[in-house]
Design goal:
It contains 2 helices and 3 strands. The chain is mainly α. The longest helix has 59 residues.
Length: 143
């Protein structure tokens, strides 16, 4: 029996493929257990209302349209956070600020381009003036 015999492994048949396991248990439930309306992401459309969380004395409400949390309630709103109208105004001001920053960057780019064009034009003009002066001096010296 040789010690270093080359062994080759050849399986007799392929192993069966496994089905991927689902991460949710919804596929095991029947249609009577849940409805399509239960799986909606929009709580207003499903009739549940906005998402509310109470932390101590403060009640937080999630605004699905804005995608932000805000404090709701009279005394709690003034103490711990911003109201809905203030949150919307803040969101609007942030969007307006972003637009102005983008416009400012565009104008800076345009200004830089115009300055580059002016520098090239000035260099061309200076080069032509020097060439003209050189030709003028050759003609004056040749007479």
């Amino acid at each position: 029996m040789p010690l270093f015999k080359k062994k080759s492994f050849t399986p007799s048949k392929k192993a069966p493929r496994r089905k991927s396991a689902s991460l949710t248990s919804l596929n095991t439930l029947d249609q009577t257990t849940y409805s399509a309306g239960d799986l909606q992401l929009d709580p207003q459309a499903s009739g549940l209302g906005p998402v509310r969380v109470r932390l101590g004395d403060h009640e937080l409400v999630f605004d699905n349209q804005e995608g932000t949390w805000f404090v709701e309630g009279g005394a709690a709103a003034g103490q711990a956070g911003i109201s809905r109208s203030t949150a919307r105004e803040l969101s609007q001001l942030r969007r307006q600020n972003q637009q102005l920053l983008e416009e400012n960057n565009l104008l800076r780019y345009k200004l830089e381009t115009v300055l580059d064009m002016l520098a090239i034009s000035n260099a061309d003009s200076l080069s032509q003036t020097r060439e003209f002066q050189a030709l003028k001096s050759r003609l004056a010296g040749g007479r």
